[in-house]
């Protein structure tokens, strides 16, 4: 009997070796599905290598994080040939976006991207632009909302389509509030080491129908986590 599993991972941040160790640990199969809840890019040493691996895996579904959002605001222009026309595009708005991205760890993505030719760069950028903004699904009769950051400006009267991109990829979850009685919100973005009152910093955090899975893979003493929606099992790999 083949067991078909649905996993979620978040905030890989260029930690290719940890990601490969995790795929081995969960014994990830072609029949399984893996959702990546954003922040594949930046900070760690090999964000592009992770991205290229994901592009080879049709059963991986990436969701956009704030680091991908920062990247796509800059990458098209950065990857263009330097001409008089492209120089004109280097306006204050672009430079501000580039500075914000760099301050948030974008250098590792840019440095690794330089190794590839124009065609590969184009394919990578187009792949990022196709990331989902969120996903809803039901696994074993449990409903899940998969999103990078959370639901900023949450209101019980809002439909998910009414939240802005900023609400979904930047604004942090209020773990003290249950957003939905009939659905679990699975998110990354906020390392569980920084969640106030968390009895297990650096491990998956569950409270009020929230499941926080960013365990700080790119930080000292952090780890990469995977959560199986079918069984509720938690998996961890460390350096």
Secondary structure blueprint with pairings:
Layout: E1 6-9, H1 16-25, E2 33-36, H2 47-55, E3 60-62, H3 66-78, H4 84-88, H5 92-103, H6 107-113, H7 118-129, E4 135-139, E5 142-147, H8 165-169, E6 183-187, E7 205-207, E8 210-212, E9 224-228, E10 234-237
Parallel strand pairs: 1-2, 2-3, 5-6, 6-8
Antiparallel strand pairs: 1-9, 4-5, 7-8, 9-10
Helix pairs in contact: 3-5, 3-7
Give an overview in words.
By secondary structure, the protein is of the alpha/beta class. The chain has one domain: Metallo-dependent phosphatases (Purple Acid Phosphatase, chain A, domain 2), CATH 3.60.21.10. 31% of the residues lie in helices and 18% in strands. It is built from 8 helices and 10 strands. The chain has helices at residues 16-25, 47-55, 66-78, 84-88, 92-103, 107-113, 118-129, 165-169; strands at residues 6-9, 33-36, 60-62, 135-139, 142-147, 183-187, 205-207, 210-212, 224-228, 234-237. The protein has a 5-stranded mixed β-sheet with strand order 3-2-1-9-10. A 5-stranded mixed β-sheet has the order 4-5-6-8-7, with no helix packed on it. Strand 1 (6-9), helix 1 (16-25) and strand 2 form a beta-alpha-beta unit. Helix 3 crosses helix 5 (92-103) and helix 3 (66-78) runs antiparallel to helix 7 (118-129). The radius of gyration is 18 Å and the shape is globular. The mean pLDDT is 94.
